[in-house]
Amino acid sequence: MADVKISALGAISAVAGEDLIAIVDDPSGTPASRKATITQVLAFINANSSSIANLVEDTTPDLGGTLTGSGFDQTGMGTISMTEQAAANADVAGDGQMWVKTATPNQLWFTDDAGTDFELANLTGTQTFTNKTLTSPTLTTPALGTPSALVLTNATGTLTSPTFVTPALGTPASGVATNITGLPIVAGTTGTLSVARGGTGVTTSTGTGSTVLSVSPALTGTATGVNLTLSGDLTVNGTTSTINSTTLTVDDKNIEMGSVDTPSDTTANGGGITLKGATDKTIIWDSTNSNFTSNQDWNIASGKVFKVNNVSTLTATALGSAVVGSSLTSVGTIATGVWNGTAIASGYIAGDAIDGTKLADDAVDSEHYTDGSIDTAHLSTGLQIDDPTLTFSINAQTGTTYTPVLADSGKIVTLNNGSAITLTIPPNSSVAYPVGSSLVFISIGAGLTTFAQGSGVTIASAGGTATAPIITAQHNSATAIKIATDTWQVIGALT
To answer: How far is CA 139 from the centre of its chain?
Structure first.
């Protein structure tokens, strides 16, 4: 475009930061025409505001942002007016705020950059201090109001009808205590403290060392002391005496219980000793049977005996020599043991005293004889078996489970149930069959019978499961033969 004078250029409606202005660079040296943006010019002015002196605007300039400067004097400016507001502006790190808080009348406040508000005190009016420390202030006729706590030092004047709430009175030199509670009785106190004042009314005490009351007082509560020694008798008139101690030592050799005015076996009934545990352990007198009873076992130390009238009656292994008789008519069944008395000779057994009526069924079986125990010397001449057939006893079982017993040896055990039956061969520890014993089983019912091994027992068979053979069908049978201590062979109709 053709050159145009600046004065001839058209006017702009608004100035933006990127707008250009003409600049003469280095006018005092080598002048040159240059351009600059409005932003560049403003940056220069802000950076060099201290060098701008006596900048004059209108009397009421309108600042649209933050007024920033390196410092200035307010000489001749008079007062500064600030518009009140409800709260401080947003916090700016490193800046504090002075502002006027909306109130009636309004208040001057300062807010630090952490957002903490502080009211600037006005000591000419009513002012409330919160968490403020005044160092050695001088208060002139202050109105204290009702302080919650106060220490008066060198205070003069008269307090009229004050109300003290839990005051610490210290040690007053004089005064009249009326309706005051919690007064301690200290050393040097004399006189009688009446019952109405919380005392006992006891006038005097006698003795030295521990205090002895001359009048029998009514003692309640818990008496606490290190040790207490009574030189006289102790009588306790009550219902229950409780001793909470680890060890109770009594020098007396004889302890009396049931010492009522007129003792008798009836009044003594139920008396004795009870030791508390999970259950009571007792030694109690029984007046009905005239004896002591105990609900626990008695264990006599080794080498000690039971005596009657100072004569030994029982030791750990034998009756005492003083026991020469007994009311026993039977000793029951002797399962094991050795007869150590004299041999039972024929003279002690009457002729024909032992016959079939004296022997129960199966009382004498093959297991009761040892090999070679019966030979021709034990058989009468001409002994014969009238019936050449052998007769077996029957043990009929109808349940769904069965464990053979010792008496089943040499018998036939029938199993009769419509449901499956489990037949368990017991271990030798439970039923001690002699090696070589045989047990015969017949399935009478429709339910199939399965052999099972007892604890520690081994079964061998030709069945589909050798250790658990099954009798094939109803009316079939199988035989179990003991071939070792806990080993059995099962033969028969098996599957």
So the answer is: 62
CA distance 490 to 459: 7
| Whether the predicted pLDDT of 124 surpasses 70 | no
Other C-beta atoms closer than 10 Å to the C-beta of 319 total 13
Residue 307 is assigned to a structural domain of this protein = yes
157-184 confidence digits (pLDDT tens): 777 777 777 777 777 777 777 776 666 6
The encoded tokens of residue 386 equal 């009238």
Q: What is the spatial distance between Cα 411 and Cα 117, in angstroms, rounded to a whole number?
A: 110
Q: How far is CA 254 from the centre of its chain?
A: 44
> How many structural domains compose the chain?
2
| Counts of helices then strands in the chain (DSSP H, E) | 2, 21
Q: What is the CATH number of the domain that holds 481?
A: 2.60.120
Closest CA to 411 of 397, 422, 424: 397
Kindly state the DSSP code that residue 493 receives in the 8-state scheme. S
Angle in degrees, CA 343, 345, 348, rounded to 5: 115
**DSSP track, 421-470:** EEEEEPPTTTS-PPTT-EEEEEE-SSSPEEEEE-TT-EEEESSSSTTS-B
The answer to whether the Cα torsion of 139, 144, 148, 154 is positive or negative is positive
Cβ atoms of 281 and 272 closer than 8 Å: no
* DSSP labels, 130-161: SS---SS---SS------SS---SS--S---S
Torsion, Cα of 220, 225, 228, 233 (10° steps): 0
Q: Which of 134, 143, 87 is nearest to 115 (CA)?
A: 87
Taken in order 293, 298, 300, 306, is the CA torsion positive or negative?
Answer: positive
SS3 378: helix
CA 6: distance to chain centroid? Answer: 98
Predicted confidence (pLDDT) at residue 37 exceeds the cutoff of 80: yes
Domain end, chosen from 283, 301, 322, is at: 322
Q: Which of 52-61, 127-136, 289-298 has the lowest mean pLDDT?
A: 52-61
Q: Does 335 reside within a domain? A: no
Query: Position 98: which residue type?
Result: M
Torsion angles phi and psi, residue 24, rounded to 5: -100, 110
Distance CA 270, CA 287 (A): 8
- For residue 403, tell me if it sits in a domain: yes
Q: What is the pLDDT of residues 343-364, one digit of tens each?
A: 666 555 666 667 666 677 667 7
Provide the 3-class DSSP secondary structure of residue 312: strand
Q: Evaluate whether 269 touches 285 at the Cβ level (below 8 Å).
A: yes
**CA-based nearest residue to 39, from 31, 47, 30:** 47
Examine the fold and report which residue of 301, 322, 343 is the final residue of a domain before the chain moves on.
322
pLDDT in tens, 126-136: 666 667 777 77
